[in-house]
Amino acid sequence: QELRPKSLDIKQEELGDMVEKEMASTSEAIEDAVRRIEEMMSQARNESSGVKLEVNERILNSCTELMKAIRLLVMTSTNLQKEIVESGRGAATTQEFYAKNSRWTEGLISASKAVGWGATQLVESADRVVLHTGKYEELIVCSHEIAASTAQLVAASKVKADKSSRNLGRLQECSRNVNEMAANVVASTKSGQEQIEEKDTMDFSGMSLIKLKKEEMETQVKVLELEKRLEGDPPRLGELRKQHYALAGAYDTPPDGEVKPAPAPRRGILKKPPLAQKP
């Protein structure tokens, strides 16, 4: 009992209450996330149009579907936990069961916190992307984080669950659905990013005549620079290869920098009379 690791911030008798509070807090965080996404959707429709509106709607819709999947996962996880407690506590109270299985309980609390935090971070990242102040990569990372925290919650719940439990089967199905929805967020984010970047690069509709002429000249300069680099790179590549062979021992490089083939290995043995050298 003394060797068992104890939580530093949660007393044993408080673990049961902490589980219920944390699951309730996670559910509230998800409900709040759904509301915020709906608000962002309304704002995006009012403030954007065309391609940007299409991209924002697609990303926010995928985030909404992910939140719905997480909400169902948390509800199923809560039902499974109640089933585990009822079947395993015997004559003990719920609090005593959680205290007796403190390591499992702490893992459950940690997993629940991770799911709620991931949902909150996803919504904040989506908000920044819609407002064009954030990075698309943030959404992708948050989606991966949610998938990982979901796996953690399922693993924590599965430890003490009966293998034939219907709630366990439902929880695993919910987990697969969350992973699928998270993958959809990643896919919609990547396609949206490509679509926006392509539009920003090729959209000249808002430019004046002078701005268009300036942009045309700058593009011509870039084309000429690239052509010059293409002309200079092949000879450079050849010289780099020569230097590589020289360092590898294939060439003998004299002090004057001229690269000549390396001498034959047995030159010292097979000596010939000196001959007149050609210029």
From TrEMBL:
Gene Ontology annotations of biological process type: actin filament organization; clathrin coat assembly; endocytosis
Any one GO MF term held by the record is: clathrin adaptor activity
Region Disordered, residue ranges: 246-279
Keywords in alphabetical order, please: Cytoplasm
Q: Where in the cell is it found?
A: Cytoplasm
Residue ranges occupied by any I/LWEQ domain in the UniProt entry: 7-248
From the Swiss-Prot or TrEMBL record, give the protein name: HIP1R protein
Task: Cite the source lineage.
Answer: Eukaryota, Metazoa, Chordata, Craniata, Vertebrata
